[in-house]
Amino acid sequence: MHHLKQLIREVPDFPKAGILFYDITTLLKDKDGLRGVIDGLKDRYAGMGVDLVLGIEARGFIFAPALAYALGAGFVPVRKPKKLPAERASVTYDLEYGTDTLEVHRDAIPAGSRVLIVDDLLATGGTARATTRLVEDLGGTVAGVAFVVELTFLGGREKLNGYNIFSLLQYDK
Length: 173
Description:
alpha/beta; two-stranded antiparallel ribbon; globular
């Protein structure tokens, strides 16, 4: 996967001084890079009986539908509040400075469904952990939690103990 890292642009001091931002837009525009991401995730989860792939707003929406297609599964968007028109289940979770909420259609995850949660980035793990709670509250089983990039130095995996966690690319700084 080293070739995929070479396609990610590193932007210093964004969004503020001292932060090194890993910009995946340069990976996305590369046809072989995008294919490599989807194939890498597909290879990890093929044969695991995934029924649904949940994509977390917003960048999870980039990868989850393509992965769902590759796995022969359905796609479910996990949205910010007030974006879904039908009856919703929601979870509110803590951020570094405040709270946030995620929602999914209440009928999107049938009881017993094997669900793969996908996002672009694992940082502190709060958003992914909240999404696992949504899945389980609706009676689904979390088959895995997958990321394109993991910032290992932020310890997000610790919030996801007990889950099948996978990241294609890891950064230690």
